[in-house]
Design a protein that fits this description.
This protein has 212 residues and is an alpha+beta fold. It has one domain. Helix content is 28%, strand content 21%. A five-stranded antiparallel beta sheet has the order 1-2-3-4-5. Strand 1 and strand 2 form a beta hairpin. The chain is extended.
């Protein structure tokens, strides 16, 4: 005998859906623990956290500030070379100063006592960053390498090379093969740093003239 069932009765026998359960059978995307199944392309996607260049720059700025507070970085190197400094100001490099990242000016109670020129120079291994500390009489107090990429040419980090710049000034050639000797295996890097130190002295000359 055929039994007809009314739509209302059929609906009453249908499986009940719990409150909040997706109508499209979203539960099929869950494993036995109730978590989304891994590797299921049809499973609902979790929201992505946007990491923009602005966020990255802000994070780097915080790291740099924290490094400075911890006693590291360029200002600390300047204070070590000019121990009587009570403050170190940051000023813009003169126009046309290629590769110069910043010019730091150290002061004591009486005035300017030194400068620090931070700049990028280029070798075969790629760009590297140097710091040249210069006294008010435009003589190099110290020349160091802050960062250097790769292995080729790393010999320029040796004090045997960097100490050659100490005491050099505007009246010195500051040229490889004349008053500066290249490091074996690092000729291009030696030339790049020598040119950078020569430019740093000129940058300080212009910076000092602008501050008068």
């Amino acid at each position: 005998m055929r039994v007809c069932t009314s739509p209302r009765a059929a609906a009453s026998r249908a499986p009940k859906r719990c409150h909040g359960e997706p109508r499209d059978g979203g539960a099929k995307h869950l494993d036995t623990t109730g978590r989304p199944r891994l590797g299921d392309p049809s499973a609902p996607k979790a929201p992505r956290l946007g990491v923009t260049p602005t966020v990255i720059s802000a994070a780097l700025a915080v790291i740099l500030v924290m490094a400075g507070c911890a006693g590291g970085g360029v200002p600390s190197a300047i204070r070590r070379s000019f121990p009587s400094a009570v403050r170190v100001d940051l000023t813009a490099p003169p126009p046309g100063s290629q590769g110069v990242r910043a010019v730091h000016v150290a002061h004591d109670a009486s005035g300017v006592i030194g400068y620090g020129v931070e700049q990028t120079v280029v070798s075969r291994s790629g760009p590297f960053v140097i710091l040249v500390l210069i006294s008010p009489d435009l003589r190099v107090r110290e020349a160091t390498i802050l960062s250097y990429p790769g292995e080729r040419g790393r010999e320029v980090r040796s004090p045997a090379f960097t100490q050659q710049f100490v005491g050099k000034g505007l009246d010195d050639p500051l040229r490889l093969g004349q008053d500066i000797d290249a490091m074996t295996g690092a000729t291009i890097s030696s030339r790049a740093m020598t040119e950078g130190v020569r430019q740093a002295v000129r940058v300080v000359q212009l910076t000092a003239a602008d501050r008068r």
